[in-house]
Queue: 4 jobs
Job 1
Amino acid sequence: MSREPRGRIPSSERRSGKPGRAGKAGGDAEPMMAIIHGELPPREVLLRFIADHPQQASKRELAKAFGLKGESRVALKELLRELEEEGMVQKSRKSLIRPGALPPIAVLDITTRDKDGMLIGRPAEWAEENGVAPAVMIKQSSSPAGRNSKGKAPVAGMGDRILAKIFSAVDRGGPAYTARIIKVIDKRQGASMGVFRETPGGGGRLMPIERRGEEMVIDPDYTGGAKDGDLVEVEVARLGRFGLQRAKVLSVVGSVASEKAISMIAIHAHGIPHVFPAPVIAEADAAKPATMSHREDWRSLPLITIDPADAKDHDDAVYAEMDPSPDNPDGVIVTVAIADVSWYVRPNSSLDREALKRGNSVYFPDRVVPMLPERISNDLCSLKEGVDRPALAVRMIFSKEGRKAGHTFHRVMMKSAAKLSYQQAQAAIDGKPDDKTGPMLEPILKPLWHAYEILKKGRDRRQPLELDMPERKILLKPDGTVDRVFVPPRLDAHKLIEEMMIQANVAAAETLEKRKQVLIYRIHDGPTLAKQEILREFLATLGISLAKGGNVRANSFNGILAKAEGTAHQTMVNEMVLRSQSQAIYSPDNIGHFGLNLMKYAHFTSPIRRYADLIVHRALVGSLGLGEGGITPDEEASLDDIAAEISTFERRAMAAERETVDRLIAHHLAGRVGAEFEARVGGVTKSGLFVTLPDYGADGFIPISTLGTDYFIYDEAHQALTGERTGLGYRLGDDVTVRLAEAVPLAGALRFEMLSDGKPMPTAVRSFHKATRRNKNQARKAPGTRPPRGRR
């Protein structure tokens, strides 16, 4: 990436109103671009300032740094909007950052030390398209600014995960960033995981499973009975400044060839806490059933749970009835009751601190790593059939047109009337009730489906983004091996629960805003103009148009998806629309939810498995005066940091789940090297093609060097690789036949060979190809241009 020119900019330390300087710290001999304090700086200067001062890159701080007021501040806002739409900067919480740069506050894993013994960390989550994750030098703070409320500075060590404030490095010869520790999130105590390999003479080596991991020596007395090829958990037995570290085997997970060990690889590779500390278990075991204090008695209301057939915890229950009010003819009342986790998990308790470290539950095909211990998640807080359970409930009134007329929140004691699976409830509605659902059909299930039809009117009017991306599920055999991969049917029962949960989440955000209570929103920004332009050019090759301008709404994309429905391009268009979208995150600053087309949205309905929902529950309890377990002032002051942490942990969970599926599928296909498969091109890069096997949900790679003898040109806008000589190529969404060339289960990697010939490219792609070749020829002929290699 080219570096922007440095220029004369105001120093953050100067408050005199005189123009200052900024360049390379410690003196910079580069020429500076003159600017006038109080006037809008050139784009290059603004971009360099954002890159070098991430902690001062909010709109307010930028205006202050350049002395901008009045019309100049308006011009700054417009310039920043243009830079964001062009993809030159992107939002990160309250600040702006350059693409590929670290945000002002980030979660880091401390992975190593430099030659001087300084701790070096890297971002806990990093998008692969941004290249190698940057190194960050960790500075242990001795200043008052780096101390906590007790006057002590947090201290971190090797293997720890920290929340840190990020600064551009002073020494340009070292890491690009330095960091000051805000707090230590997780002290990993040097625990690591790897594959044990025996060495002659006894003992062995630990081969790391993490890409940035280091090999370790295991002495004969510390092998713990591990055999060659075993996946083992170790602790560092001795650290040294020189040579390999020495480790001691703590436990043998099992042969790395076993699928049951695969999820443990992801757990350790991503640093997911999976063992509850003794104080947390003790606190959970000591918990007593909730009392009726500050609760309404709703045990006679026939609320029911509808969940996957294999669900072990049940945190939401629903009920619907006609509204008896004459002011709302044919309207309905929908009640959603959610497990009252806030009663058991109090702020700053052992349970609470551990839940925040985890952020959310993580779901693997063979296990679940829960956010809360089983005593809480599967017992006291699970809305079990026929058992008294505490809940936080919302009663919502809708008109017959699906417009919400009002809602109220209640802290209740409930008793679930039935536990149903999605398939069971759907079968009853479809005319095939069983002994359990038969008596419930008229009084409970049909009113729920009638209410859903009314809610659906409101959803259709709102027009959220309706992507059709089937979610594959892996079914395992009893021994942990893959049985089959399938796409579960999408039932109305699923949609009913989803829409009722969305409405409950909206109600929570509205109530807290009305009470002027700070909270954590679930926000989703719209796609940048840069991503829109890539999508627009791609769609043009299919004869589909996307309107220009920055005011694109979710229904704009729905029109595109509708045009592609039923065509050969349907999957490809859905994938490209998905890629154009931003990622949803948690934040105390509300910008709305683009995908759902909602202005006020918070997560409220899953406090057993998401920390964000627990915070919202506490905020509701506190602001509505519903008794014990409300949000505290310390929590309110920390919502920025909490939102950043749980957003990171959500991405961590998604990556771990995805990698585990990749490893399971690679293990399943390892014995079929040489076999042919029907595949679809799922990604196009400069290096080659990513292909997906629809029957297996597996992804693999075809290097560009193996595609044939032609020279292939990469066209990002049209997501294509086109042969320079033949004009034939491959595009995103193409159906192809491939041969499995290599499977590496430990890495979850599959490499394929292309068997299908390239296809003639559409006119727009051919035009791009000709322009690229013409530009290359002109460059070769330009005066002073060096001839290409091989023709000197």
Job 2
Amino acid sequence: MRRDAIADPWGARTPYGPGQSWPVRVDSQLADGLTEDDVDRWVPTAAVLHSNGDGLELAVKDGRLVGVRGRAEDRVNRGRVDPKDLYGWQANASPDRLTTPLVRRDGRLVEASWDEAMGLVADRSRALLDERGPSSIGFYTSGQLFCEEYYTLAAIAHGAIGTNHLDGNTRLCTATAAAALKETFGCDGQPGSYTDVDHADVIALYGHNVAETQSVLWSRMLDRLAGPNPPSLLCVDPRDTPVARAATVHLAPLPGTNLALMNALLHEIIARDWVDHDYVDRCTVGFDQLAALVADYPPERAAEICRVPAARIREAAALLGGAQRLLSTVLQGFYQSHQATAAAVQVNNINLVRGMLGRPGCGVLQMNGQPTAENTRECGADGDLTGFRNWANDAHVAELADLWNLEVKQIPHYAPPTHAMQIFRYAENGSLRLLWVSATNPAVSLPDLARIRSILSQDRLFLVVQDVFLTETAELADVVLPAAMWGEKTGVFTNADRTVHLSEKAVDPPGQARPDLDIFLDYARRMDFRDRDGQPFPSWHDAETAFEAWKRASAGRPCDYTGLSYGKLRQRAIQWPCDAEHPDGTERLYADGKFFAQPGYCEDYGRDLVTGAPADQNEYRAFNPDGKAMLKAAEYVPPHEMPSAEHPFALITGRTIYQFHTRTKTGRVPQLRDAAPEVWLEMSEQDAKAHDLSEGDLAEITTPRGAVRARVRIRGIRDGVLFLPFHYGYWDTGDQSGRHRAANELTITDWDPVSKQPLFKTAAAAIRRAEGAR
């Protein structure tokens, strides 16, 4: 049904009770004047403007996209469509799409042929390989490409070139999810399923504003709340979000103190013996160490650190401790904050200590921020090895070399694959000389933007940007490659609960734009990459042959796709692992109390949660010889940048429901653009009064790194905290000289020691009325 998804982003309620199936509600949106009878054909796909993975169909008329509707049978959304997806398809037809390659001549980007553009990239690559070796080349990709494209990029970077420098912008949004899962379960992969919402009696959301980041999943939760025997909600968030307003208990800790709060919750659960001792003894290691550490974190201590009443912490602990079916979800409020992995691991610990895993309503979802972030991790394009293999396990590297028919020494495994912040540091110091950026916009999304612009603008750095619009990053490039968008190419992608969808090509890309897979394969052929038998590498040539190759790479690993095919996925979406033993997929991991954590099989040997120091195989084997789930503890330490007299506020950044990432697509859609056209500042009423600011006033926010101007919104955020949405850059301002709009002008160059995820929620800031504004 049609609805005004701007005014009503979550749509009408369809209440249901525990254990019942979520009722169907089909949302649709067509171009003005069209009805479904006018549509030539409907092409299956899934949502691309968030991480939920909603099943959709694209409407095509006369070779053009003209609308979208939800798929009633889809297990993820049962027909519902997020506001961004209802309108976002219009971005494909935006008149400023990139349609021809561009190269830099005499300081300007000018149109060129594909031969010229790719020739320049290949020539520079060959010269660097000859003169400086593989480590002079790096790749920085996205969480929005397809599985086949990530796998191809990983094969080219780690295999053909032999560089360790490959990561995705998933480092900004989902690296801590992966790290927390590896620390607890020995391997990536979400234990839970979205259907756990249908069964849970308590849902705990830690730093997860699901109402705006995954609106369809919030609709599912709202429908449970509207039905009989609704679940209780725990919300941990310093802002007064829709989730907080619906919560049974809302905890609003001071940014940077999440770990202290989690330790206090575990203190109460263990002290009051809300522990499933049989499960803990049978399925975990590390309980005694955990109990000893959290014994030092009574609610009174956490209250002093977090500025949250001790009684409220006890109330939250009682909610968790009394749950019969506990679902826990985590997102950026934890992942992008201080001690990110350590805090996220404690969420896993709560569910394990309570024995709440592997059965309906009992699960953990360490959420993603982008639609294909899971594929980036599985395929090895984000700082991991392909197929959740362990870079420090020689047998895993040898297995990958055999799959690719390459020599083992060709695949770098002297250290973990390089994380994004280190890749940019190498570019800064000059050891990395070619950086290929695909489908992401670091000139707006990375922290400390003045530094990032300086790095990307260096004459000695050859910057290749592969994208669909001339982004702020593309404007700095030496070569710009026009890419096809979603709906203009075929491939699979996997959402946050391991659901795999096939997205079919619906229309042709404009002009000379090409699918990302075709661009990567063209590069490989121009470079004449070969395997050890002298055959072209990679060996695949289109999306389906790439998928078949990926299936072989996934065989026997936790993310096993061998039971899937394009034909099977045309029938329905399926959760991995899907293999001969699980031909219909797997709804929940670890239902049998067995984990992907055996020393010879695990993806990672773990790290110290405070320092990030890695463990080796012998240390891991001594701690966890039987491959159980691991309960890991960590002391709270203060953030590196604390509020001070000069900068008295804690600044956090985040999202709005109407925009996605740096607005390269959503900012070009009239409904979404007009719903949230400009950056704003959220602050508390008390803080606004103290600084003589009123609703709508223009304020200037400063940190040691820069200044941003934004209109004030007075909301229920906790005192002492400021919030800016991070989406807003400069491509639509017409003026690149005054850089006072992007929230990341203010954020700090710092990252979590375990996940290496940048910290966007711990900057110290000051605020004042903007000069000349009232």
Job 3
Amino acid sequence: MKMTFTASAWSLALLLAAGGASAQNVLNYVNPNIGTAHSRWFFYTPAAVPYGMAKLAPSTNGHYGNASGWEAVGYDTRQNSIEGFVHFHEWQVGGVSFMPTTGELRTQPGDLDKPASGYRSHFDRKNQVAEPGYYRVLLDDYGITAELTATKRVGFHRYTFPKNDQAHILLDIGNKQGESGEVTGASIRMVDATHVEGFVSTYPKYVKTYDPAGKVNMYFFGEISKAPASVGAFTAAGAQLNTKSATGKGAGLVLNYQTTAQEKIELKVGLSYTSIANAKANLLAEAKSLTFDQARTAAQATWQRELGKIAVEGPDEQNKTKFYTGLFHALLGRGIASDVSGAYPKHGGQVGQLVASGPGPKPEFMNTDAIWGGYWNITQLWALSYPEWYGNYVNTQLQVYRDKGWFGDGLVNSEYVSGVGTNFVGLAVAGAYQAGIRNYDVNLAYQAVRANELKYRNRAFGSGKMDVKAFTQYGYVPFRDDYKEYKGEWYKTDSTGAYFANSHTLEYSYSAFAAAQMAKSLGKQADYEQLIKLSNGWKNILNPQNKLMQPKLADGTFVGNFNPFEPWRGFQEGNAMQYTFYVPQNPAGLVAALGRDKFNNRLDSLFTASAKTGFGGGKEIDAFAGIKAIYNHGNQPCLHISWLFNFSGQPWLTQKWTRQICDEFYGTEPIHGYGYGQDEDQGQLGSWYVITALGLFDVKGFTDGRPIIELGSPMFSKATIQLGNKKQLVIEAKNTAKQNVYVQAAELNGQPLANCWLYRDELMQGGRLVFTMGPQPNKTWGTKTPPPSAQ
């Protein structure tokens, strides 16, 4: 079958590639192999475009799934055999694996410790290339070179075979992949000699827990460049020769060929979460005339354009690699779930149709892990240079609110997959509003934000915050020690309290503040007063004796047998030492409550101690390695803490510690990437590095009525940023060097800056922000007027 490249598609590729040498250099600084030990299912997907539905990647262990539903699975740098190339990689979504082989037909992937027991193949990483938009590897057992690339909704494969009379391409669709859970239904069939279609349905663990009537459907329609000599089928029951369809668990097809030396066979696979027809329509719309090479060119040009929106300069090549790999993960982490037609997956396998609800183009519907912690990284990055994705996120959540009545923190095909049992969507929406991102129905958005903070009647379990009634009644969430395990349900939360009572109290106080500021901006004074009172809930659990956030019972007494380093008891994925600093909505209030000297001494000693373990869990390869520590950069609850010195009169310590975290927690190795095997949730830790390396941050996540930007220690001598409003901001750091971490002076557009912060709307006007750096702290700069912390 001949595939041609149209003039319009070629013009598009040339247009996208028109970035010159600097754009190409940006691509060269991305290393997708960083952090690929103990990485999550959606982490390593090089053959994709930003926020694409098609995210193709090799899998070393994907068919094993994982017992907890979220753990590391997919591609692990410590494993040396590949079992297939998988198309779908999202939070709780995985499926449709292809694998080329030669020789005796095997229809099971085989075990890691016994590669010959199945069709998996050994490979050598010296024969592997992973770049944004492209992947290539030599499969040693078969002498086959496999290449992958993608458009938004179409995956491309190119397999270069040796001469062989028994060459195969296995289309293995009926087995669990990654976080997807068990397959509940599957079907695949050859439509004609060169086209294949099918679907797979799964029931992931987090759907089962949080939205039990839900389901996850994945559909595909594929085009093959060469008709196979014969086709066979297989299921869990075994192989059936000369059969062109298969259904049920373990379903798949095998395409059989007699190949000549260096013969190339290409496949294009349209994907959809709504129907086979829409998968085909996506293929025709995006890739009807594209060859593999042309798709790769366009994909990499897209990455060059998007990564190039922030161009950094400086002599430290390693920092550039950290920066652009972090930005790559930030732009890769989440993925669209809507089709080119605007069709999107609704609850329970239904199909909806997106409509534009505000100015600008029709939004995309997104799948997303929880936004827990995302207001300290990904939303700030979106608001800086990628506002269309912040708008897509808000519009997705508002569509779910219309369809189901509640926001959903984590979402997979409209199903609730919260994971953390709280819900920060309202805060993220309020932050978007205050940042000027408003391409949605603002009144509906406020209605949904208010409901998220205050309503509890008939609340859907998967929407989280099942203890809202308790929080609004007591002003804090009462601790229930018996809820660690209650009738078989771990870490229970209900209208009377929660096992994670303290972290919930702190989180709800913060999100109530965000909703209060949105209410005030919209002139809703009564709501503002109710919500701002709730935002001070943190004061109810601060023990005045030990100056720590301590779990409190419903009768108002603090819990006994209290160990501030003990994780989980009262605190989700953390402990009291970490969570005591969780008052981002009112840092000045926390400083006053602890006393400035005590606050600064404790905070500084916290970082001095945690520096000895790399600001996380040391070299232990586990997502929760740091939850017992005094500080844990490998998880969300701590990510604002290093910026709090700006509020306590010692901004030079924010400069010192944020730079040291960038230098030591973040690495450039497959194992030491984001800590050692820490939990890089869909680009959050990468985003934190990006904005911190630029020297920009807001502990409040832009939830103030007039948001601010705190200033830190810019890492690069020059950063040229294309702002989301089409203006340009240049950040210069004079005398920047590894040891010159301290700001001596700063100016914006020629005017001296006396403060370690400025209003965000001033920054977004663009121009030149210039820092002068030095090796010793200037303890007079930025100390006179702290960032506003008004209530």
Job 4
Amino acid sequence: MAIDLSKTTSPKGKIEQRIVYESGNEMAAYAAHQINYHIMGYFPISPSTEVAQFLDLMKANGQHDIVLIPADGEHGSAGVCYGASTAGGRVFNATSANGYLYMLEQMPVQSGTRFPMVMNLVCRSVSGPLDIHGDHSDLYFALNTGWPIVLCRDPQAVYDMNIIALKLAEDPEVRLPVLVASDGYFTSHQKRRVMTFANREDVLAFVGEKPPEGFAHVLDRDNPITVGPYMNEPDYINNCYQQSMAMYRAEAVYDRIRQEYAELTGRDYPILDLYRMDDAEVAVFLLNSSAEIVKDVVDQLREKGVKAGSVSPNIIRPFPAKQIAEALHGVKAVTVGDRADSYGGHGGNMTIEVKAALQTYENHTTKVISRIYGLGGKDFYAEDGLKLFEEAIAAAGLDGAAAAEGAASPKPFDYHGHTAGDPAKAPKRVLTPMKFEELKTGLITVTPDETTGKLNVRVPPLRSLTKKPKRIAPGHGACPGCGIFSGLELFFKGIEGDMIALFHTGCAMVVTTGYPYSAHKATYIHNLFQNGAATLSGVVEMFYERKRRGELDHLGLKEDFTFVMITGDGGMDIGMGPAIGAALRNHKMIILEYDNEGYMNTGAQLSYSTPLGHRTSTSNVGKQQAGKVFHHKDTAQIMAATNIPYVFTGSEANPIDLVRKAAKAQWYARNEGMVYGKILITCPLNWLSEDRDGSTIIEQAVNTCFFPLYEVERGVTNITYNPEEKGKKSSVLDWLRMMGKTKHMSKPENQETLREFENEIERRWAVLKAKHESPYL
């Protein structure tokens, strides 16, 4: 983080402050590092990913002591955080969108057992379809989790609310985890001038040097406790009542804390941010970043004689119903803008709650107009704010047209910013579907050997396979030098006939399916990477059952489909459980993992396949840390332990070997069950290597025995390429020097990490050779 070291004391504040120019994500991380939390469990997802990245970079440079725990997925990160909170320390997290929904099961568990923490929700559209930009569809899922929710309209508020939130969470009258919500990209990535505490000591003086004492935790050996017991009625309802009362108390506690904070800093966040509402006749109600934009519209309307005003809460759990009803007293009409729909509810969640507030506090005169806007990150401009005001003005009868007898009133509920469908712009098929005869060439044959029980594969020279059509069309948006598609297409050369592919979220998915275009020539399915294996399992079983019932006879299928799930190494982290489940059920499908050693589509964070010592954006190199601190996962061996018929590793640097394995994979997937394959893929952008060196780097990875080529066929291991026997065994250090992400491992201060990495490569290679020599290992 680039920090401007100029310091100032706000004329309205009591503490020394520093001016910085940073984004919302940077300010969340900055506040967290000043607090110096004990634990952060995290998993990367855009646009919140940067929070962990910034904290890791600061950790590498020794700026804080937070233990950063990279989880296997958001559900795991929520579990890490919950466990840490039961142990009495301070806990922090950040997430977005489907990542938050994946955590959702854990959210009421933590609030229901009353363990405080702070989590930043960097708001983003919830799939599907997939969209990574900002709206409030994830935020609205948080409303019923029992967490107080504070809002941030700009990076300054992100910083301030992260400090206020911890004090609120730990207050004896509250003791609940708190959510800090900001808008993805609009706030998370937008740089602004921000005032911060100049000294960590002042931050800790405000929130407390350490968590308040006197509350039970699991590390007190003299006071053992039971966390989360089973409850029947009436105990369960009593627990919920106590939690509910704590939530309502949070409103007064927040109000007290924000006043204390205002006295220290000169910055105030009242429960409602009211702008020119004293005599307003029409108003607009909005959350977060768009609420600032609409203030300019208020000023413009005031200049024209319209008594306009705006309302925006700084806290929505507990919902400030009474204050809102009072603020709208005398207002003839208000347009409530929701950045997410509550489908079927005749308005978004804020609309429903504003209406309830008016009803509860007997304001029966203010008309409420509901508009859904800004979904999927659609920009909100002053012109959009003006349109929302125009709806309220018309509903209030303040303009001539609406006041005229018989004039139509605005719809009580509608979307703003959507466009009518144009049949002329409907997606059209650009590519002619591939013919079966083109795909079933007969060039590759696989025949079982009745004597050995293994498969004999005949593969022609590679040039003969160029006649087979590519299954992914040119025109995708991958980075220069990306090895994904050369690796996938080489594998696909070994597949004969029709194929249905499921792609997890990841680089290969994102760059091939930008609506309304698709680079996929065959049927393609997408699901989020924690559940792809289960999804394709459902497709496979439906195919075979409908085939058994004769429901597909009219389609004239020449032979069965080959079902392939394409996943990155991230999908085999967060999706490991469903993948193992599919393997144990032994569905007739192939899981093909392209391993580029990181979560590349979200910005090159570490995955469990990132090797020891390698630099990523969450395993930085600095004076206190030199890359990833634990070894990479051997996914192929994990999948082999499920006893599926066939497991293999492959590389485009050994093309015939990979094509032969693809052919075997297809035979086993059609005849016996699950297949898993792993291919190493180059990523020049994030490996910090030359585009032209990709194949050479992959070849060296194989020749060092870091990425050995082998297969496990019906439980028997066979090394298919041995660089020692070929006289091609190469130096690990020479390979590491080819990539910018690993050059630091050659420095004297990192020799211990290098030796540990080399030793682990040799250990795994020795184990593999032993398995190759014995069919019982």
